[in-house]
Amino acid sequence: MKQRKVVDGNHAAALGALLSKPDVVAAYPITPQTPLVQHFSQYVANGVMDSTIVEPESEHSAMSILTGSSLAGGRTFTATSSQGLALMYEPYFRVSTMRLPIVMDIVNREMISPQSVWGGPQDSLTLRDAGWIQIYVEDNQEILDMTIQAFKIAEHKDVLLPVNICYDGFYLSHMTEGVYVPEQDEVTEFLPPYRPTHVKLDPEEPMAVDPLTPGNYLQYYRELHMQAMDEAKRVIKEVNDEFAKKFGRDYFGLVEPYRMDDAEFVLVTLGSLTGSARVAVDLAREKGVKAGLIKIRSLRPFPLEEIKELLKDRKAVGVVDRNVSFGWHTGIVYQEIKSAISDLDTVPTVPFVGGLGGEDLTTELMSDAIDHVVKAGKNSQIENKTIWLINDKGR
Amino acid sequence: MKEIRIHGRGGQGAVTTSEIIVYAAVEDGLFGACFPYFGFEKKGGPVTAFVRIDERKIREKNQVYNPNCIMVIDPTLINAVDIFVGAKDNSILVMNTKSVEAMEIPNEIKRVAYVDANSASMDIFGRLLPNTIVLGAFAKATGWVSLDKIIERTKDIWGDKNVEAIQYGYDNVKILDVNGGFSNEEN
Predict the structure, then answer these.
(1) Residue among A8, A117, A276 minimizing CB distance to B62
(2) Which of A66, A186, A240, B70 is the most buried (most CB within 10 A)?
(3) Which of B33, B62, B63 sits opposite A177 (nearest CB)?
Protein backbone atom coordinates (compact mmCIF):
# COMPACT_ATOMS: atom_id res chain seq x y z
CA MET A 1 0.00 0.00 0.00
CA LYS A 2 1.66 3.15 -1.14
CA GLN A 3 1.25 6.23 0.93
CA ARG A 4 0.26 9.56 -0.58
CA LYS A 5 1.27 12.89 0.89
CA VAL A 6 0.64 16.49 -0.08
CA VAL A 7 4.01 18.20 0.21
CA ASP A 8 6.17 20.91 -1.30
CA GLY A 9 9.36 20.21 -3.26
CA ASN A 10 11.70 20.63 -0.31
CA HIS A 11 9.60 18.20 1.73
CA ALA A 12 9.62 15.74 -1.18
CA ALA A 13 13.44 15.95 -1.32
CA ALA A 14 13.67 15.44 2.44
CA LEU A 15 11.43 12.35 2.22
CA GLY A 16 13.54 10.94 -0.61
CA ALA A 17 16.70 11.40 1.41
CA LEU A 18 15.10 10.04 4.58
CA LEU A 19 14.07 6.84 2.79
CA SER A 20 17.62 6.47 1.43
CA LYS A 21 18.95 6.26 5.01
CA PRO A 22 22.06 8.41 4.78
CA ASP A 23 24.67 7.96 7.52
CA VAL A 24 25.62 11.62 7.57
CA VAL A 25 23.77 14.77 6.54
CA ALA A 26 25.55 18.12 6.75
CA ALA A 27 23.77 21.15 5.39
CA TYR A 28 23.81 24.89 5.78
CA PRO A 29 20.47 26.66 5.27
CA ILE A 30 19.99 29.05 2.36
CA THR A 31 16.83 30.30 0.64
CA PRO A 32 15.04 28.50 -1.04
CA GLN A 33 16.55 25.27 0.33
CA THR A 34 16.08 26.19 4.03
CA PRO A 35 12.90 24.15 4.76
CA LEU A 36 14.71 20.99 3.62
CA VAL A 37 17.27 21.40 6.40
CA GLN A 38 14.43 22.09 8.81
CA HIS A 39 12.79 18.78 7.87
CA PHE A 40 15.99 16.89 8.69
CA SER A 41 16.24 18.51 12.10
CA GLN A 42 12.64 17.49 12.75
CA TYR A 43 13.24 13.90 11.61
CA VAL A 44 16.16 13.57 14.00
CA ALA A 45 14.33 15.32 16.85
CA ASN A 46 11.31 13.05 16.35
CA GLY A 47 13.49 9.97 16.23
CA VAL A 48 12.42 8.85 12.75
CA MET A 49 15.91 9.29 11.31
CA ASP A 50 19.08 7.90 12.83
CA SER A 51 21.54 9.77 10.60
CA THR A 52 24.20 11.96 12.10
CA ILE A 53 23.20 15.54 11.35
CA VAL A 54 25.91 18.17 11.33
CA GLU A 55 25.08 21.86 11.30
CA PRO A 56 28.26 23.43 9.96
CA GLU A 57 29.18 27.11 9.74
CA SER A 58 29.18 27.24 5.93
CA GLU A 59 28.52 25.30 2.74
CA HIS A 60 32.28 24.87 2.28
CA SER A 61 32.35 23.07 5.62
CA ALA A 62 29.21 21.07 4.80
CA MET A 63 30.80 19.56 1.70
CA SER A 64 34.12 19.07 3.50
CA ILE A 65 32.37 17.16 6.32
CA LEU A 66 30.66 14.95 3.74
CA THR A 67 34.02 14.38 2.06
CA GLY A 68 35.39 12.92 5.28
CA SER A 69 32.21 11.00 6.00
CA SER A 70 32.12 9.49 2.52
CA LEU A 71 35.81 8.55 2.78
CA ALA A 72 35.00 6.82 6.05
CA GLY A 73 32.46 4.70 4.15
CA GLY A 74 29.26 6.58 4.89
CA ARG A 75 26.31 7.34 2.66
CA THR A 76 26.01 11.13 2.68
CA PHE A 77 23.53 13.79 1.65
CA THR A 78 23.31 17.57 1.51
CA ALA A 79 21.52 20.34 -0.34
CA THR A 80 22.24 23.93 -1.24
CA SER A 81 21.41 26.83 -3.57
CA SER A 82 23.19 29.52 -5.60
CA GLN A 83 25.64 31.46 -3.41
CA GLY A 84 25.96 28.46 -1.12
CA LEU A 85 26.99 26.32 -4.08
CA ALA A 86 29.45 29.02 -5.13
CA LEU A 87 31.03 29.01 -1.68
CA MET A 88 31.21 25.21 -1.92
CA TYR A 89 33.04 25.21 -5.24
CA GLU A 90 36.41 24.13 -3.91
CA PRO A 91 35.29 20.92 -2.15
CA TYR A 92 32.61 20.45 -4.87
CA PHE A 93 35.23 19.79 -7.53
CA ARG A 94 37.39 17.76 -5.16
CA VAL A 95 34.52 15.40 -4.33
CA SER A 96 33.92 14.43 -7.94
CA THR A 97 37.59 13.96 -8.76
CA MET A 98 38.01 11.87 -5.59
CA ARG A 99 35.11 9.76 -6.92
CA LEU A 100 32.98 10.11 -3.78
CA PRO A 101 29.33 9.14 -4.41
CA ILE A 102 27.81 12.00 -2.41
CA VAL A 103 24.27 13.07 -3.28
CA MET A 104 23.43 16.76 -3.19
CA ASP A 105 20.09 18.25 -4.18
CA ILE A 106 20.52 21.71 -5.65
CA VAL A 107 17.51 23.94 -5.18
CA ASN A 108 18.18 26.08 -8.22
CA ARG A 109 18.34 29.78 -7.49
CA GLU A 110 19.50 32.70 -9.58
CA MET A 111 23.08 33.88 -9.06
CA ILE A 112 23.58 37.41 -7.81
CA SER A 113 24.16 40.32 -8.49
CA PRO A 114 21.68 41.95 -8.47
CA GLN A 115 20.35 40.44 -5.24
CA SER A 116 17.76 37.73 -5.92
CA VAL A 117 16.46 34.70 -4.09
CA TRP A 118 14.23 33.37 -6.86
CA GLY A 119 14.42 30.32 -9.07
CA GLY A 120 16.67 29.50 -12.01
CA PRO A 121 19.39 26.91 -12.69
CA GLN A 122 22.24 29.35 -13.39
CA ASP A 123 23.96 28.13 -10.21
CA SER A 124 24.34 24.44 -11.09
CA LEU A 125 24.58 24.89 -14.86
CA THR A 126 27.58 27.16 -14.40
CA LEU A 127 29.27 24.21 -12.62
CA ARG A 128 28.35 21.62 -15.25
CA ASP A 129 31.99 20.79 -15.94
CA ALA A 130 33.02 20.10 -12.34
CA GLY A 131 32.65 16.33 -12.76
CA TRP A 132 29.32 15.74 -10.99
CA ILE A 133 26.35 13.98 -12.54
CA GLN A 134 23.59 16.59 -12.86
CA ILE A 135 19.95 15.56 -13.27
CA TYR A 136 17.21 18.19 -13.62
CA VAL A 137 13.63 17.40 -12.61
CA GLU A 138 10.17 18.76 -13.32
CA ASP A 139 7.85 18.13 -10.37
CA ASN A 140 7.76 17.05 -6.73
CA GLN A 141 7.30 13.34 -7.42
CA GLU A 142 10.36 13.39 -9.62
CA ILE A 143 12.34 15.16 -6.86
CA LEU A 144 11.47 12.43 -4.37
CA ASP A 145 12.03 9.54 -6.76
CA MET A 146 15.27 10.89 -8.20
CA THR A 147 16.75 11.66 -4.77
CA ILE A 148 16.42 7.92 -4.09
CA GLN A 149 17.69 6.91 -7.54
CA ALA A 150 20.63 9.32 -7.18
CA PHE A 151 22.26 7.16 -4.48
CA LYS A 152 21.90 4.05 -6.59
CA ILE A 153 23.45 5.76 -9.62
CA ALA A 154 26.24 7.40 -7.60
CA GLU A 155 27.23 4.22 -5.74
CA HIS A 156 27.13 1.92 -8.78
CA LYS A 157 30.53 0.23 -9.17
CA ASP A 158 30.87 1.44 -12.77
CA VAL A 159 30.06 5.05 -11.84
CA LEU A 160 31.26 6.08 -8.34
CA LEU A 161 30.56 9.74 -8.93
CA PRO A 162 28.62 12.34 -6.95
CA VAL A 163 25.12 13.25 -8.15
CA ASN A 164 23.13 16.49 -8.10
CA ILE A 165 19.37 16.35 -8.33
CA CYS A 166 18.49 19.89 -9.43
CA TYR A 167 15.05 21.41 -8.91
CA ASP A 168 13.87 24.97 -9.42
CA GLY A 169 13.69 27.16 -6.36
CA PHE A 170 10.16 28.29 -5.44
CA TYR A 171 8.58 26.86 -8.61
CA LEU A 172 9.15 23.42 -7.09
CA SER A 173 10.72 23.99 -3.69
CA HIS A 174 7.67 25.91 -2.49
CA MET A 175 4.99 24.32 -4.70
CA THR A 176 2.67 21.91 -2.90
CA GLU A 177 1.19 18.89 -4.69
CA GLY A 178 0.40 15.25 -4.09
CA VAL A 179 3.22 12.69 -4.20
CA TYR A 180 3.38 8.96 -3.61
CA VAL A 181 5.83 8.00 -0.90
CA PRO A 182 7.29 4.52 -1.33
CA GLU A 183 7.48 2.11 1.58
CA GLN A 184 10.77 2.00 3.49
CA ASP A 185 11.14 -1.76 2.96
CA GLU A 186 10.84 -1.39 -0.79
CA VAL A 187 13.36 1.45 -0.91
CA THR A 188 15.80 -0.51 1.24
CA GLU A 189 15.42 -3.44 -1.15
CA PHE A 190 16.01 -1.16 -4.13
CA LEU A 191 18.93 0.64 -2.50
CA PRO A 192 21.21 -1.68 -0.54
CA PRO A 193 23.78 -0.18 1.88
CA TYR A 194 26.88 1.56 0.47
CA ARG A 195 30.04 -0.56 0.83
CA PRO A 196 33.00 1.29 -0.72
CA THR A 197 36.23 -0.42 -1.69
CA HIS A 198 37.66 2.03 -4.27
CA VAL A 199 38.54 4.80 -1.85
CA LYS A 200 38.17 4.74 1.92
CA LEU A 201 39.90 5.64 5.13
CA ASP A 202 40.17 2.47 7.17
CA PRO A 203 43.01 1.96 9.69
CA GLU A 204 42.71 -1.81 9.09
CA GLU A 205 43.44 -1.35 5.40
CA PRO A 206 45.50 1.84 5.03
CA MET A 207 45.19 3.67 1.73
CA ALA A 208 46.85 6.89 0.54
CA VAL A 209 44.10 9.18 -0.69
CA ASP A 210 44.72 12.30 -2.73
CA PRO A 211 48.54 12.55 -2.59
CA LEU A 212 50.41 15.09 -4.72
CA THR A 213 50.01 13.60 -8.20
CA PRO A 214 52.05 14.29 -11.33
CA GLY A 215 50.33 15.18 -14.60
CA ASN A 216 50.65 11.82 -16.29
CA TYR A 217 48.68 10.14 -13.48
CA LEU A 218 46.27 13.05 -13.15
CA GLN A 219 45.53 12.79 -16.85
CA TYR A 220 44.86 9.08 -16.41
CA TYR A 221 42.41 9.82 -13.58
CA ARG A 222 40.61 12.36 -15.77
CA GLU A 223 40.29 9.77 -18.52
CA LEU A 224 38.81 7.25 -16.05
CA HIS A 225 36.46 9.92 -14.71
CA MET A 226 35.21 10.64 -18.23
CA GLN A 227 34.75 6.91 -18.85
CA ALA A 228 32.70 6.71 -15.65
CA MET A 229 30.50 9.51 -17.02
CA ASP A 230 29.97 7.42 -20.16
CA GLU A 231 29.08 4.39 -18.03
CA ALA A 232 26.69 6.58 -16.05
CA LYS A 233 24.53 7.00 -19.16
CA ARG A 234 23.83 3.28 -19.12
CA VAL A 235 23.46 3.13 -15.35
CA ILE A 236 20.99 6.05 -15.20
CA LYS A 237 18.82 4.20 -17.71
CA GLU A 238 19.15 0.86 -15.86
CA VAL A 239 18.29 2.45 -12.52
CA ASN A 240 15.36 4.25 -14.17
CA ASP A 241 14.04 0.96 -15.55
CA GLU A 242 14.49 -0.91 -12.29
CA PHE A 243 12.74 1.90 -10.41
CA ALA A 244 9.90 1.97 -12.95
CA LYS A 245 9.42 -1.76 -12.60
CA LYS A 246 9.41 -1.67 -8.82
CA PHE A 247 7.54 1.58 -8.15
CA GLY A 248 5.56 2.11 -11.36
CA ARG A 249 6.97 5.50 -12.30
CA ASP A 250 9.07 5.78 -15.48
CA TYR A 251 11.10 8.91 -16.25
CA PHE A 252 12.65 7.57 -19.46
CA GLY A 253 16.27 7.88 -18.36
CA LEU A 254 18.48 10.62 -19.80
CA VAL A 255 15.82 12.50 -21.78
CA GLU A 256 12.05 12.38 -21.97
CA PRO A 257 10.56 12.83 -25.44
CA TYR A 258 7.05 14.29 -25.50
CA ARG A 259 4.90 13.96 -28.66
CA MET A 260 8.08 13.48 -30.68
CA ASP A 261 7.04 10.61 -32.97
CA ASP A 262 6.08 12.75 -35.95
CA ALA A 263 7.21 16.13 -34.60
CA GLU A 264 8.61 18.64 -37.07
CA PHE A 265 9.13 21.57 -34.71
CA VAL A 266 10.82 20.81 -31.41
CA LEU A 267 11.33 22.63 -28.13
CA VAL A 268 14.12 21.49 -25.82
CA THR A 269 13.59 22.20 -22.13
CA LEU A 270 15.07 21.49 -18.72
CA GLY A 271 13.51 21.65 -15.26
CA SER A 272 10.14 22.93 -14.08
CA LEU A 273 9.53 25.13 -17.14
CA THR A 274 8.89 21.90 -19.07
CA GLY A 275 5.30 21.87 -17.73
CA SER A 276 4.08 24.99 -19.54
CA ALA A 277 6.02 23.90 -22.66
CA ARG A 278 4.05 20.60 -22.68
CA VAL A 279 0.80 22.58 -22.54
CA ALA A 280 1.99 24.80 -25.41
CA VAL A 281 2.91 21.72 -27.48
CA ASP A 282 -0.60 20.32 -26.93
CA LEU A 283 -2.16 23.64 -27.99
CA ALA A 284 0.01 23.74 -31.13
CA ARG A 285 -1.01 20.17 -31.97
CA GLU A 286 -4.68 21.16 -31.65
CA LYS A 287 -3.98 23.80 -34.32
CA GLY A 288 -2.39 21.22 -36.58
CA VAL A 289 1.24 22.20 -35.91
CA LYS A 290 3.41 19.13 -35.50
CA ALA A 291 5.16 20.29 -32.34
CA GLY A 292 7.15 18.12 -29.96
CA LEU A 293 9.32 18.48 -26.91
CA ILE A 294 12.49 17.00 -25.49
CA LYS A 295 12.98 17.33 -21.75
CA ILE A 296 16.63 16.98 -20.86
CA ARG A 297 16.93 15.18 -17.55
CA SER A 298 20.63 14.36 -17.42
CA LEU A 299 22.77 17.30 -18.44
CA ARG A 300 25.90 15.53 -17.17
CA PRO A 301 26.49 13.03 -18.59
CA PHE A 302 25.15 14.70 -21.70
CA PRO A 303 22.73 12.50 -23.69
CA LEU A 304 24.58 12.97 -26.98
CA GLU A 305 23.31 9.88 -28.82
CA GLU A 306 19.69 10.42 -27.71
CA ILE A 307 19.68 14.07 -28.76
CA LYS A 308 21.21 13.29 -32.15
CA GLU A 309 18.69 10.55 -32.76
CA LEU A 310 15.73 12.63 -31.60
CA LEU A 311 16.67 15.72 -33.59
CA LYS A 312 17.45 13.92 -36.84
CA ASP A 313 15.25 15.06 -39.74
CA ARG A 314 13.30 17.69 -37.82
CA LYS A 315 12.41 20.99 -39.45
CA ALA A 316 13.58 23.28 -36.64
CA VAL A 317 14.57 23.22 -32.98
CA GLY A 318 14.23 25.83 -30.25
CA VAL A 319 15.96 25.65 -26.88
CA VAL A 320 14.40 27.42 -23.91
CA ASP A 321 17.02 28.45 -21.37
CA ARG A 322 16.30 29.90 -17.93
CA ASN A 323 19.96 30.89 -17.70
CA VAL A 324 22.64 32.62 -19.75
CA SER A 325 26.03 31.81 -21.18
CA PHE A 326 27.87 35.12 -21.06
CA GLY A 327 30.04 35.58 -24.11
CA TRP A 328 27.95 33.28 -26.28
CA HIS A 329 24.90 35.54 -25.99
CA THR A 330 22.65 32.47 -25.64
CA GLY A 331 21.61 30.11 -22.89
CA ILE A 332 23.84 27.24 -21.78
CA VAL A 333 21.60 24.37 -22.90
CA TYR A 334 21.41 25.90 -26.38
CA GLN A 335 25.19 25.58 -26.69
CA GLU A 336 25.00 21.95 -25.58
CA ILE A 337 22.29 21.11 -28.13
CA LYS A 338 24.08 23.01 -30.86
CA SER A 339 27.26 21.00 -30.23
CA ALA A 340 25.34 17.72 -30.13
CA ILE A 341 23.77 18.24 -33.55
CA SER A 342 26.72 19.95 -35.23
CA ASP A 343 27.35 16.96 -37.50
CA LEU A 344 23.71 16.56 -38.52
CA ASP A 345 22.52 18.25 -41.68
CA THR A 346 21.73 21.82 -40.84
CA VAL A 347 18.67 21.91 -38.62
CA PRO A 348 17.67 25.52 -37.96
CA THR A 349 18.04 26.26 -34.26
CA VAL A 350 16.58 29.08 -32.22
CA PRO A 351 17.95 30.10 -28.81
CA PHE A 352 15.42 31.42 -26.27
CA VAL A 353 16.23 32.96 -22.92
CA GLY A 354 13.63 33.87 -20.31
CA GLY A 355 12.28 33.25 -16.83
CA LEU A 356 15.43 34.56 -15.15
CA GLY A 357 15.29 35.54 -11.49
CA GLY A 358 12.02 33.68 -10.92
CA GLU A 359 10.09 35.25 -13.79
CA ASP A 360 7.24 33.12 -15.09
CA LEU A 361 7.64 31.27 -18.38
CA THR A 362 3.94 31.15 -19.15
CA THR A 363 2.16 28.87 -21.60
CA GLU A 364 1.67 31.94 -23.84
CA LEU A 365 5.44 32.54 -23.95
CA MET A 366 6.02 28.88 -24.79
CA SER A 367 3.46 29.17 -27.59
CA ASP A 368 5.33 32.25 -28.87
CA ALA A 369 8.52 30.19 -28.81
CA ILE A 370 6.88 27.43 -30.89
CA ASP A 371 5.71 30.08 -33.40
CA HIS A 372 9.31 31.31 -33.76
CA VAL A 373 10.55 27.74 -34.28
CA VAL A 374 7.91 27.11 -36.95
CA LYS A 375 8.94 30.33 -38.71
CA ALA A 376 12.62 29.36 -38.60
CA GLY A 377 11.75 25.92 -40.02
CA LYS A 378 9.65 27.29 -42.84
CA ASN A 379 12.28 29.82 -43.89
CA SER A 380 14.97 27.15 -43.43
CA GLN A 381 17.03 29.89 -41.95
CA ILE A 382 19.70 29.29 -39.35
CA GLU A 383 18.60 31.54 -36.53
CA ASN A 384 21.12 32.07 -33.82
CA LYS A 385 20.19 35.37 -32.32
CA THR A 386 18.71 34.89 -28.88
CA ILE A 387 15.01 35.66 -28.54
CA TRP A 388 14.08 36.90 -25.07
CA LEU A 389 10.82 35.56 -23.66
CA ILE A 390 9.45 38.43 -21.60
CA ASN A 391 6.47 37.99 -19.31
CA ASP A 392 4.32 41.12 -19.33
CA LYS A 393 1.36 39.54 -17.55
CA GLY A 394 0.43 40.92 -14.19
CA ARG A 395 2.52 44.05 -14.84
CA MET B 1 -9.05 23.54 -14.49
CA LYS B 2 -10.07 25.72 -11.57
CA GLU B 3 -7.64 28.50 -10.68
CA ILE B 4 -7.85 30.29 -7.37
CA ARG B 5 -6.04 33.38 -6.18
CA ILE B 6 -5.95 34.01 -2.44
CA HIS B 7 -5.27 37.47 -1.04
CA GLY B 8 -4.29 37.75 2.59
CA ARG B 9 -1.88 39.52 4.87
CA GLY B 10 1.36 38.07 6.17
CA GLY B 11 0.59 36.01 9.28
CA GLN B 12 -3.05 35.31 8.39
CA GLY B 13 -2.35 31.85 6.99
CA ALA B 14 -3.14 32.50 3.31
CA VAL B 15 -0.36 30.14 2.19
CA THR B 16 -1.40 27.33 4.56
CA THR B 17 -4.99 27.87 3.45
CA SER B 18 -3.90 27.23 -0.13
CA GLU B 19 -2.15 24.02 0.97
CA ILE B 20 -5.30 22.82 2.75
CA ILE B 21 -7.31 23.28 -0.46
CA VAL B 22 -4.73 21.23 -2.40
CA TYR B 23 -4.83 18.52 0.27
CA ALA B 24 -8.61 18.33 0.01
CA ALA B 25 -8.47 18.20 -3.80
CA VAL B 26 -5.92 15.37 -3.77
CA GLU B 27 -7.92 13.44 -1.17
CA ASP B 28 -11.01 13.90 -3.34
CA GLY B 29 -9.13 12.11 -6.13
CA LEU B 30 -8.34 15.27 -8.10
CA PHE B 31 -5.00 16.92 -8.80
CA GLY B 32 -4.01 20.09 -7.03
CA ALA B 33 -1.00 22.38 -6.84
CA CYS B 34 -0.34 25.65 -5.08
CA PHE B 35 2.42 28.07 -4.28
CA PRO B 36 2.77 31.49 -2.76
CA TYR B 37 3.71 34.61 -4.66
CA PHE B 38 7.45 34.71 -4.27
CA GLY B 39 8.13 37.87 -2.39
CA PHE B 40 9.57 38.82 0.94
CA GLU B 41 6.40 38.36 2.98
CA LYS B 42 6.24 40.42 6.11
CA LYS B 43 3.70 40.19 8.88
CA GLY B 44 0.82 42.43 7.84
CA GLY B 45 2.00 42.94 4.27
CA PRO B 46 -0.14 41.78 1.33
CA VAL B 47 0.39 38.09 0.53
CA THR B 48 -0.89 36.21 -2.51
CA ALA B 49 -1.18 32.46 -2.97
CA PHE B 50 -2.20 30.54 -6.08
CA VAL B 51 -4.07 27.23 -6.31
CA ARG B 52 -4.92 25.02 -9.25
CA ILE B 53 -7.38 22.11 -9.15
CA ASP B 54 -8.00 19.81 -12.07
CA GLU B 55 -9.05 16.32 -13.05
CA ARG B 56 -5.69 15.79 -14.76
CA LYS B 57 -2.13 16.36 -13.66
CA ILE B 58 -1.29 20.02 -13.31
CA ARG B 59 1.68 20.92 -15.48
CA GLU B 60 1.85 24.72 -15.41
CA LYS B 61 4.16 26.07 -12.74
CA ASN B 62 3.30 29.72 -13.02
CA GLN B 63 1.28 32.28 -11.15
CA VAL B 64 -2.48 32.31 -11.65
CA TYR B 65 -3.23 35.32 -13.85
CA ASN B 66 -6.87 34.57 -14.69
CA PRO B 67 -8.57 33.12 -11.61
CA ASN B 68 -11.98 31.41 -11.54
CA CYS B 69 -12.12 32.24 -7.86
CA ILE B 70 -10.71 35.12 -5.84
CA MET B 71 -10.53 34.66 -2.09
CA VAL B 72 -9.99 37.68 0.11
CA ILE B 73 -9.06 36.94 3.71
CA ASP B 74 -8.62 40.54 4.87
CA PRO B 75 -11.25 43.16 3.99
CA THR B 76 -8.77 46.06 4.04
CA LEU B 77 -6.83 44.54 1.13
CA ILE B 78 -9.35 46.01 -1.23
CA ASN B 79 -7.64 49.38 -0.61
CA ALA B 80 -4.13 47.95 -1.06
CA VAL B 81 -4.21 45.66 -4.11
CA ASP B 82 -6.34 45.21 -7.22
CA ILE B 83 -8.03 42.01 -6.12
CA PHE B 84 -10.04 41.71 -9.33
CA VAL B 85 -7.18 41.94 -11.84
CA GLY B 86 -7.41 39.26 -14.52
CA ALA B 87 -10.64 37.72 -13.19
CA LYS B 88 -12.00 35.14 -15.62
CA ASP B 89 -15.60 35.38 -16.80
CA ASN B 90 -18.04 33.39 -14.63
CA SER B 91 -15.77 33.65 -11.62
CA ILE B 92 -16.51 33.66 -7.91
CA LEU B 93 -15.51 36.14 -5.22
CA VAL B 94 -15.20 34.76 -1.68
CA MET B 95 -14.64 37.58 0.75
CA ASN B 96 -14.32 38.45 4.37
CA THR B 97 -16.52 41.53 4.75
CA LYS B 98 -19.57 42.78 6.64
CA SER B 99 -21.26 43.91 3.46
CA VAL B 100 -20.68 43.97 -0.28
CA GLU B 101 -23.28 46.65 -0.99
CA ALA B 102 -20.79 49.48 -1.50
CA MET B 103 -18.41 47.34 -3.58
CA GLU B 104 -18.08 47.66 -7.31
CA ILE B 105 -18.15 44.12 -8.59
CA PRO B 106 -16.68 43.72 -12.09
CA ASN B 107 -18.79 42.03 -14.73
CA GLU B 108 -16.66 38.87 -14.80
CA ILE B 109 -17.71 37.98 -11.25
CA LYS B 110 -21.02 36.14 -11.31
CA ARG B 111 -21.17 34.97 -7.72
CA VAL B 112 -20.26 36.77 -4.52
CA ALA B 113 -19.92 34.85 -1.29
CA TYR B 114 -19.20 36.83 1.84
CA VAL B 115 -19.00 36.33 5.55
CA ASP B 116 -18.09 38.70 8.37
CA ALA B 117 -15.12 36.59 9.37
CA ASN B 118 -13.52 39.30 11.52
CA SER B 119 -16.46 39.51 13.93
CA ALA B 120 -16.89 35.74 13.97
CA SER B 121 -13.18 35.30 14.60
CA MET B 122 -13.36 37.54 17.66
CA ASP B 123 -16.22 35.37 18.98
CA ILE B 124 -14.49 32.06 18.27
CA PHE B 125 -10.83 32.84 19.01
CA GLY B 126 -10.97 36.15 20.86
CA ARG B 127 -8.67 37.57 18.21
CA LEU B 128 -8.43 38.14 14.48
CA LEU B 129 -7.87 34.82 12.70
CA PRO B 130 -10.30 35.03 9.80
CA ASN B 131 -8.71 32.59 7.31
CA THR B 132 -10.41 29.34 8.27
CA ILE B 133 -13.82 31.05 8.36
CA VAL B 134 -13.21 32.27 4.79
CA LEU B 135 -12.04 28.75 3.89
CA GLY B 136 -15.38 27.35 5.09
CA ALA B 137 -17.16 29.97 2.98
CA PHE B 138 -15.04 28.94 -0.02
CA ALA B 139 -16.00 25.28 0.41
CA LYS B 140 -19.70 26.15 0.40
CA ALA B 141 -19.61 28.79 -2.35
CA THR B 142 -17.60 26.74 -4.87
CA GLY B 143 -18.27 23.11 -3.96
CA TRP B 144 -14.94 22.32 -5.63
CA VAL B 145 -13.51 20.30 -2.74
CA SER B 146 -15.21 18.41 0.04
CA LEU B 147 -15.76 20.06 3.40
CA ASP B 148 -14.76 16.99 5.42
CA LYS B 149 -11.32 16.84 3.76
CA ILE B 150 -10.77 20.52 4.46
CA ILE B 151 -11.76 19.93 8.07
CA GLU B 152 -9.52 16.85 8.32
CA ARG B 153 -6.40 18.76 7.28
CA THR B 154 -7.23 21.88 9.24
CA LYS B 155 -7.71 19.81 12.41
CA ASP B 156 -4.22 18.33 11.85
CA ILE B 157 -2.58 21.71 11.44
CA TRP B 158 -4.55 24.05 13.67
CA GLY B 159 -6.81 21.98 15.91
CA ASP B 160 -10.48 21.94 16.87
CA LYS B 161 -11.11 25.68 17.28
CA ASN B 162 -10.39 26.13 13.59
CA VAL B 163 -12.73 23.30 12.68
CA GLU B 164 -15.42 25.30 14.46
CA ALA B 165 -14.37 28.34 12.43
CA ILE B 166 -14.61 26.44 9.13
CA GLN B 167 -18.05 25.16 10.03
CA TYR B 168 -19.11 28.71 10.93
CA GLY B 169 -17.95 30.02 7.55
CA TYR B 170 -19.65 27.16 5.73
CA ASP B 171 -22.96 27.66 7.57
CA ASN B 172 -23.07 31.45 7.59
CA VAL B 173 -21.70 32.51 4.22
CA LYS B 174 -24.13 34.64 2.21
CA ILE B 175 -24.12 33.72 -1.46
CA LEU B 176 -25.43 36.12 -4.10
CA ASP B 177 -25.65 35.70 -7.83
CA VAL B 178 -24.52 38.96 -9.43
CA ASN B 179 -24.16 40.36 -12.94
CA GLY B 180 -26.90 38.03 -14.16
CA GLY B 181 -25.38 34.89 -12.58
CA PHE B 182 -23.40 32.13 -14.29
CA SER B 183 -24.00 31.86 -18.01
CA ASN B 184 -23.78 28.07 -17.77
CA GLU B 185 -23.90 25.39 -15.15
CA GLU B 186 -20.21 24.64 -15.46
CA ASN B 187 -18.91 27.95 -14.10
Answers:
(1) A276
(2) A66
(3) B33
